[in-house]
Amino acid sequence: MPPTAVLNGADLAWMMTSTALVLLMTPALGFFYGGMVGTKNVLNTILMSFATLAYCLVAWALLGYSLAFSPGNALIGGLQWAFLRGVDLTGSQSLGPSIAHVIYMAFQATFAIITTALVSGAIVSRMRIKAYLVFITLWVLVIYGPVAHWVWGGGWLGKLGALDYAGGTVVHVNAGFAALAAALVLGNRTNYGRQAFLPGNVPFTLLGAGILWFGWFGFNAGSAVAANQFAALAFANTFLAPGACAVVWSLLDLLRTGKVTAIGMASGIVVGLVVITPASGFVPPIWGLVMGAIGAIPSYYVILWRAGTRVDESLDVFAAHGVGGATGAILTGVFAVKAWNGVQDGLIAGNPHQVVVQLITVLAAAAYSFVATFVLLKIVGALTPLRATAHEEALGMDPTQHGEEAYTTGEGAILVLHESAEAKV
Amino acid sequence: MKLIVAIVRPDRVNDVLEALYREKVQGLSLSRVQGHGGELDRVETYRGTTVKVELTEKARFEIGVSDHFVDRTVKAIMKAARTGEVGDGKVFVLPVEKVFRIRTGEQDAAAVTPVGVE
């Protein structure tokens, strides 16, 4: 990029819009997950997402952004942008030359936030909120920051030639394997395997999936960091792939059970979005449609398989995001076409080496995320208990962790007056 | 014949059902109720409003049994529903004057004996 590049109004407008779109995905995820838990845990589950909007946002602004994106070594960025020093209103040469640096920071913050929130689906209905807040604040710094640096911030996977348009590896493989590690450290919900845990509000899950799709246009098309033809390609693929994935998903449902399920349709949309994320700006639209369709199959069968195992990875973050993200990342190496993306060809266009690069990227992110999350939770667990007691679990996380209920009747609730108010009576 | 009414914690319902099934106690009603025993009050806060929630959700079993089933039914419920904390609930055993099975018109012991059991 020329050093004289100036801010571009269209780019700036699109990137501020994209940032707002991606921010909305985190509350949407809260509803997507919240609908799948019981009514005594719905507030806790939605709050697990909302908490990342607060804690990870602050951690990102203070430290995470610098660790991920400021110039550093192959493994981690430096500290020169810590506390937002140097994150100003001018363009950032290497990252987003035509938009204000502070908007690039904010856009990337929304990715760090949703990635952390994704992990929460593995550990619903049993984690103490205090331990969770410590965990997410550290996770975004210690696990998300380095992986983002490896691929996007000038680290070793980016230099290797990894193609990850909007985060198939950085976001979804990362969150999926962290989720698996978190489920193993936390342990199963009491009575898992004996008692059925049914969704408390399926319409919430559909609502969440719909808003996730809407926000995802910012996620993928915003990853062009400009309002240009690559943003348009990513937008089109984000439009096409989830539809194809949900068609295949519902057909698999239909063949297996004779019925089309609502949660299946919502899951199909989300998995389609996950699968197309790394490929969105790299593959022609017709391959985007094909990728969405193919991408349904591994996640669908991993969900079925997981439900029969003894691992209570409660809301199948691993199957949807770990497996879906890996499928998307590898297929990106198959379907990429340089004539469309201006960067690199994949297998079908005559560059089989790209598939190997994609595999290395997936394996590196998966291994680091799984091991580091496992260790981080063990350390947090040594400082403060991770699990709520069996008694608290029986009452639900909403009353025991938050002192609130999602659906109150007011029956039997006696108003406690403040001392000052009592004095006046 | 007796009517056994048991008020238990909602999260023990599955355990109670399982224990009753093992004792071959068939035929029961289950309802969700709100009640207050001796539990410590739960405090909730909504913005500036703080409330003590004195009614707790409970599950209520009603089981009609013939006399020789009373003991084992009560024992099964007591064992399955117990956590040792305040709020585990109560079991009441009530006398029953008459029982009719609507479908057949059978009365009393015959009416509370499940179909297929002698």
Key terms:
heterodimer, A: 425 residues, mainly alpha, Ammonium transporter fold, two-stranded antiparallel sheet, 3 strands, 66% helix, globular, B: 118 residues, alpha+beta, Alpha-Beta Plaits, four-stranded antiparallel sheet, 3 helices, 23% helix
Furnish the topology, listing elements before pairings.
The complex is a heterodimer of chains A (425) and B (118).
Chain A: H1 9-34, H2 42-69, E1 91-92, E2 96-100, H3 101-119, H4 129-151, H5 156-160, H6 168-186, H7 202-221, H8 229-257, H9 262-276, H10 285-307, H11 317-335, H12 338-341, H13 353-383, H14 390-395, H15 397-402, E3 413-416, H16 419-424
Antiparallel strand pairs in A: 1-2
Helix pairs in contact in A: 1-2, 1-3, 1-7, 2-3, 2-4, 3-4, 3-6, 4-6, 4-13, 6-11, 6-13, 7-8, 7-9, 8-9, 8-10, 9-10, 9-11, 10-11, 11-13
Chain B: E1 2-8, H1 13-22, E2 29-35, E3 42-46, E4 49-53, E5 56-65, H2 70-81, E6 89-95, H3 108-112
Antiparallel strand pairs in B: 1-5, 1-6, 2-5, 3-4
Q: State the CATH class of chain A.
A: Mainly Alpha
> Which parts of chain B are unreliable, with pLDDT below 50 for 5 consecutive residues or more?
none
The beta-strand count of chain A equals 3
The third-level CATH topology of chain A is Ammonium transporter fold
How much helicity do the residues of chain B have? Answer: 10-25%
Describe the protein's architecture and organization.
The complex is a heterodimer of chains A (425) and B (118). In chain A, 66% of the residues lie in helices and 3% in strands. Chain A is mostly helical and 425 residues long. Chain A has a single domain, classed as Ammonium transporter fold, CATH 1.10.3430. A two-stranded antiparallel ribbon of chain A has the order 1-2. In chain A, strand 1 and strand 2 form a beta hairpin. The termini of chain A are far apart. The mean pLDDT of chain A is 95. By secondary structure, chain B is α+β, with helices and mostly antiparallel strands. Chain B has a single domain (2-112), classed as Alpha-Beta Plaits, CATH 3.30.70. In chain B, 23% of the residues lie in helices and 35% in strands. Chain B has helices spanning 13-22, 70-81, 108-112; strands at residues 2-8, 29-35, 42-46, 49-53, 56-65, 89-95. In chain B, strands 2-5-1-6 form a 4-stranded antiparallel sheet, covered by helices on one side. Chain B has a two-stranded antiparallel sheet with strand order 3-4. In chain B, helix 1 (13-22) runs antiparallel to helix 2. Chain B is elongated. Chain B starts with a strand and ends in a 6-residue tail after the last helix. Classes of the chains: A mainly alpha (425), B alpha+beta (118). Chains A and B meet through helix 14 and strand 3 of A and strand 3 and strand 4 of B.
